[in-house]
Specification:
Elements lengths: L2 H15 L5 H15 L4 E11 L7 H4 L7 E8 L5 E9 L4 H6 L2 H7 L9 E3 L10 E2 L10 H27 L12 H20 L26 H19 L4 E2 L8 E3 L7 E5 L4 E5 L6 E3 L10 E3 L6 E2 L4 H4 L1 H4 L2
Parallel strand pairs: 1-4, 4-5
Antiparallel strand pairs: 1-2, 2-3, 6-12, 7-11, 8-9, 9-10
Length: about 325
């Protein structure tokens, strides 16, 4: 592909086909992801794939990835149709996916709310941190609950779209599967992003007939290292992931309590507090600005509205029996 034509494809045509969805498109994406995995609020899936390059003359170790070959990283966000809505390419292959994210424009824009994500979010694999706008699966440390496993399974049903998108990209433009002869990194970046632009054009034109069954990109997933990100950035994401899980799987015996003491009261609507009823199970969900969620059963059978405890940081699973034994009231 001639360099001038490739550059024109990326700089002129690219922004028309690789762009963040507008409000109407976002709503459609959310609905389609919900149909795939029964998780409400997903606007895109993020992941990285590696583009093979020849061993560079300089900084060879930097470009050598964890699989032992030299590469640059293509980071992309795709929608439910496997279209890329954001791409970033050119980081050295040795970088962890989370570090690549932090160095990309999408991290800055989402952190600064320049992208209209709102209460919606991206999802990614376990290589990524938990952020208010990025939700990875729960780590399986051997103590996950049944609902955690269900959430992770449904999370993977949505997340597989990005693997399929990378698979389609590399099957159609098979040069991306092999080593680039040209050592010029800028040229390889142009070719890779140009292929992403053409990929979106093909998706829009429904040109998928020549794609074979090899439509997944299964790179090994590196574990996210928690020290790579500040706790104050990660905590809102933990709260949001819990909210997404509980909102989907219904009532749980969960209380959020204040960091210093228990604070009991009644769930009220209006302001920053939202009350959602589950009549069959007599459970309620409360979302506030400081404590992201609450799901509880009434402490007394004759209570019109459940009493609740708030905590701003963590979730405590309280055995159901304690609600009837009076243990909860003893801590009030």
């Amino acid at each position: 592909m001639p360099r001038v034509w490739n550059a024109s494809l990326v700089t002129i045509v690219g922004p028309q086909y690789i762009k963040w969805p507008d409000a109407n498109e976002t709503n459609k994406i959310i609905e389609n992801f919900y149909r795939k995995g029964q998780i409400r609020g997903v606007v895109g899936v993020i992941d990285c794939t590696h583009i093979r390059i020849k061993k560079p003359v300089h900084d060879q170790e930097v470009y050598c990835n964890r699989k032992g070959y030299h590469s640059i990283i293509l980071q992309a966000v795709c929608d439910d149709k496997k279209r890329f809505i954001d791409v970033c390419c050119g980081e050295a292959g040795s970088l962890h996916d989370a570090r690549c994210l932090r160095r990309s424009n999408i991290h800055e824009k989402c952190q600064n709310r320049q992208f209209p994500i709102g209460n919606h979010f991206l999802i990614g694999d376990s290589a990524y941190p938990v952020l208010s706008w990025l939700i990875p699966p729960f780590k399986d440390n051997g103590h996950l609950s049944h609902n955690h496993h269900i959430f992770n399974h449904r999370h993977s049903q949505c997340r597989i779209v990005i693997e399929q998108a990378f698979g389609l990209l590399k099957c159609r433009f098979r040069k991306l599967l092999h080593i680039f002869e040209n050592r010029n990194i800028d040229f390889i970046v142009l070719c890779s992003i140009g292929a992403c632009v053409l990929h979106n054009i093909c998706i829009d034109k429904k040109d998928l007939e020549d794609i074979q069954n090899d439509n997944s990109d299964n790179d090994e997933i590196p574990e996210y290292v928690e020290n790579n990100i500040l706790e104050d950035e990660e905590q809102p994401g933990i709260n949001k992931r819990s909210y997404v899980r509980f909102a989907k799987f219904g009532p749980q015996i969960v209380f959020l309590w204040n960091t210093q003491h228990y604070r009991w009261g009644k769930v009220r609507g209006g302001g920053n507090t939202t009350t959602i009823g589950y009549p069959q199970s007599k459970a309620w969900l409360c979302v506030t600005s400081s404590s992201f969620l609450l799901i509880s059963r009434p402490l007394h059978s004759d209570a019109d509205t459940p009493r609740y405890a708030l905590r701003s940081r963590r979730v405590f699973h309280w055995p159901y029996e304690s609600l009837h034994s009076g243990a909860a009231d003893r801590h009030a």
